[in-house]
């Protein structure tokens, strides 16, 4: 196949923040009708490259050529007009507006200065159907699950050239999807991929950022790998095997990852840390029984929306239960507030880092100290020397970068933010650690570090509830497994050689009870 | 080299622009009031324009400090003006009922009752906001409106005048050659700084204001923190009410502390605390309150016609706010600033700044 002219060619891109090079001399090209994976660990410069391309950050060096013409993109609006559309990892929709309004926002069909609501809904419905979705476009976006919202965001981005102003040349040339799949379940990912393939056939060049290697190999044609702000290489997906790819991304061998796969099966007979009997919450999770012992990792598997998070939130007191009892170390506990659970040594890492974890305005130090401080109450501040020592210790132990306790947490990359939140809970020396999607949206290296941490914590006797959409991960880490389906805990089993991904999937799919 | 870096460090400091504005406002007065900066000792009391600014600005500083904490939790308290009126009215009523208005015991009783009333007002606001989950602007609007009525009820619709030397001390008296109110303000400032920064209260308040749900999930008793902020704010307003009524030896349910909530909010914002909650700066708030008081003084000294003084005030406030905005400064002085190289840590990043950036070490 002769290579056509690239639709986009970025050469020698340089970007600095506060004197630190986030991108140095990066080349990136994109051909029409291809899905191009942009890969690299957290902090490798993927997001920065995207933000330079979309005009969020001004360029400090290098050239951008679009359709053979050099361009200077200085604002997101300009990028959009040039046909570069972006969907960011965190869904940016107006929750209180309808699906139709969100899709056509800023491009509403207008007559005599008034919005034609019927036409608006018709156009939106048309777009939604074209992308193979079945939605009530007049319902507020907030009433749909996060996964659907993600698809709506993509439709909005792509649709902006299809409907509305109708001007020629306003069509999507480049579509950037920054981790669009991190909150989607298997079926939804398939829907997204179908959509991406359709767009590829229409000649759209798609930049796809994802941490799921399976997905890269399933859907992408070509990939560009970044490491520490520099270009490592551009390859055809077919030419580069997974192991080599991971080596390129992290720049070291996978031995550490391999070691981990040994860990499962040896379920220690520790003492019961938490026990739930018939715990439930209407509309969230049906009554379930559960028991986790010291040093045990309980993995929870199930599709998105199967009740994994809801179960965890009940154990933590983040939501109140309608029925049932919880016992911590044999004592019944009334959990009305997270505080009640925290006082008994429970820690909960939420899946929503941004809305339920971080206080972005506060420094890394303040975020790390927060849980410990909350437990001590406001009258007993953690002494400064002890605080600085603890923070420095955990920044080093978890390799939080930049290793600056004064840095604003909001400016850290996703993986480092997650480590800050982990540090926050580890400081409280929890007896039960509930991790809800701790590795979502973070890179391979950080993922392995977090998994290793879980193993060593469990060896120290911490009970862990580990929730992840990645079945392999759950299988690798847990001693016992719980499987959820349709807001019901349908199976509990000891992990062992006979428990395979296939078997768990079967339970999720069929409804066989253990 | 070191001088320029020193200069840059100074301009980057978050108090730089508020302090500059304050100094500029003070200097503007000099041509209109010769000897503006002079301070005389007369009858053992210090007199001078600067002393008056601090004296008349005292109630605003107090109210603004309380307001800072409330705003930091992500709330707002519109009822402080009404609390000022209630506290003053109750205190004056109690003093006027005494046989001997000069009796210290009676005055102390008046203070205690007035502050208790202010405390109740704060608890009321706190419960509405934190327990019932009513939006702060609405919850405190209730007392803002009703509080004036309560003050009228206390004074029976009259202006109660008192004639008590002991009572007039707090708002108009002198001690050690200085206005007594200065000591009260200093005490409250020191207390509130100790309360927020020597304990963990400041951190917890900032966490609650910065991300309420995350704070709940981390185990912070955010309701309690919020109620405390409103109670503290109410108490500050109560003390301010005592000062204002003491200064004029009268309680006016209608006009005491009228619109002080708006000046206080303004002082907080000029001081660098965001209305969305989170980070707060008590030092900045004090500067902000002094700016507003100096502005009021300036309006009189340079002879702005009374009909237009609100317009004048508005213009100055807009200029001060714009000068503080990094986004505005970048637009106006942008070309020069950029050649000097990218700024290091920018305090108060503009709202449209990137949420995340990936920085490789």
From TrEMBL, chain A:
The keyword DNA-binding does not apply. InterPro entries: AAA+_ATPase, ABC_carbohydrate_import_ATPase, ABC_transporter-like_ATP-bd, ABC_transporter-like_CS, P-loop_NTPase. Pfam families: ABC_tran. GO terms for molecular function: ATP binding; ATP hydrolysis activity. Gene3D superfamilies: P-loop containing nucleotide triphosphate hydrolases. It comes from the Bacteria. This is Simple sugar transport system ATP-binding protein. Keywords: ATP-binding, Nucleotide-binding, Repeat, Sugar transport, Transport. SUPFAM superfamilies: P-loop containing nucleoside triphosphate hydrolases (SSF52540). Residues 8-253, 268-511 form the ABC transporter domain. SMART domains: AAA.
Automatic annotation (TrEMBL), chain B:
Keywords: Cell membrane, Membrane, Sugar transport, Transmembrane, Transmembrane helix, Transport. Residues 339-361 are annotated as: Disordered. InterPro entries: ABC_transp_permease. It is a multi-pass membrane protein. One of its GO terms (cellular component) is plasma membrane. GO terms for molecular function: transmembrane transporter activity. Its main location: membrane. It is found in: Cell membrane. It comes from the Bacteria. This is Simple sugar transport system permease protein. The lineage of its organism: Bacteria, Bacillati, Actinomycetota, Actinomycetes, Kitasatosporales.
